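ok trying again, last paste got cut off:
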Amino acid sequence: MKAAIMHGFNRELTIEEIELGGPRAGEVLVNLKASGVCHSDWHALKGDWGDYGLPLVLGHEGAGMVQEVGAGVTAVKPGDHVILAWRTNCGICEMCQHGWPNLCTAPPSTGQRGTVGGEPLHRFTDTGTFATHTVVPESAPVVMPKEIPFAQAALIGCGVMTGYGAAVNTARVRAGSTVAVFGCGGVGLNCIQGARVAGAEMIIAVDLRDNKLELGRRFGATHTVNAADNDPVEAILELTGGEGVHYAFEAIGVASAPYSQSVRCTRRRGTTVWVGHAPLNTAVQFDARDLFFERTVIGSFYGSARTHVDFLRILALYREGKLMLDELVSRQLPLERVNDAFASLAEGDVARSVLIMD
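nice, full thing came through this time. structure:
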């Protein structure tokens, strides 16, 4: 088994042999075939979200094949092709019982697992998909049809679910409505196509880069605003006849300005959904009166996912040609080129790089 190992913040990852051991009771050993390289991994690499322990295997968008199951596992079997959900659930806490398993208060965990060079190994979000293998709780893998490509399937595990789910599950975008999406990265593009699938009439993509705005159009945006050249709030108000949009999504998670802009661009009783996972201690300021006309601001965690339902719905939409996955895969790279994938992410010239393990 091998993995890309993080030994410190803002340092290149190194490819090293790891030891994981077999699955224990209630666990599944997965032979990973593909992993997306997500902004969340980059945040962790930069230290934006604190310390996850070192040495660390990053990665949380994974797909592969079940290699072995532990005692008591019945949901999957060896040979199954699976997408990994990085957020597991217990099924019995208050959040799970109310139908919000993404907010589970006692998610099953495999804990600190394995070694590298004799040191205890840590894995990002208990998943660590920048590797040839991983061990996860039984609730993490979702069985998929074997004809689905692993590279496309891996992206459902985070970026697709997070963006699509924010539009369809969290906001419940209505047909004929108007939408603004701040950020045309992997998550923002899926907010856009989630709104498109839901039947939004106008979808305004906002970004600082023209190439990202062009991607936004490919995924369903009807209008674009380059925030480097225009005040996005003013531009959105102009496009909507001064009313503002019904729904706005912040899908950047880097700086505070888009968070406040996403509130101010909505109309009366408009809904703003904060999807981007900001660095620790990111303060957001806006006038309290901005909410007086019954605007709503809500966070979206993992697209309000019910993974064993939503992953399969997303796959059905993909197979019907209604949801784009092929176009999200900008490049496929071997695991050994993980640092090149991060460089492309930093440059903003990809929708998603995907690491291929074989």
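cool. Residues 150-170 form the longest helix (21 residues). The first strand starts at residue 2 and ends at 6.
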